[in-house]
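Hi P.,

Sorry for the delay on this. The queue was packed all week, but I finally got your sequence through. Input first:
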Amino acid sequence: MAAELVGQGAEAVLLMGSHARGDAMAHSDVDLLAIGEGPEYVLQRRCGYLFAVSWTTVAAVERSFAEPASAGYAVQGWRDARILADRDGLAAGLQEAAREWAWQRVGDAACNRYVAGELTGLAEEVHKLANLHATGNLRGAAVQRNLLAIRLSVILGVHLRLLYSTENELWNMVAAQLDDRWRQAQDTAFGLSGEPFGATCGAALQLYGLAAELTLPLLDTRQHEVVRAACALDLS
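Then the structure:
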């Protein structure tokens, strides 16, 4: 596969994800990243495996290291990667940059702006959850509940300055950094113990309130007003 991608114009090819880390499971796909001009993302079956082939550029990789939304997983992914082909040493240079990378590359100001902006933006989803639950739209409420429980950990991953190889582990990593209130609310929001539907939705609102409590000093006056009003909503 790497040789084929080089033949299609790739300047470098890397094995990413679980097969690069050595923790692939029976149904794990094989993630290949090609440096060069090509289709952004293609899935195909080869030799009994699902291959996920992505193309990117050096500039795009460098941007992913510098942006709060992507740095947490991009840097660790490059640290874990195995280089399969590297005509001019581009991949080796990027991997070395990943290994030397620190959150100071992004900067506290940029990270804090991202966290504050994303948390404020989720206030709209809190309002939707309250409305959908109140009107008995259970499917819609379930979507909003899950959206909140998922997105909040992504935001807090930046707030806590975490690096992670896969989002599959991010929720556990965030929970390990926070107190029992977060862990219990997260487990309830996901219904891990078969909690009633209303309790799972209420736990998603609790997660939003806990995230706001953690990040309150980052909010400006406008953001604080929006977040505070969202935190005051309930499902009664």
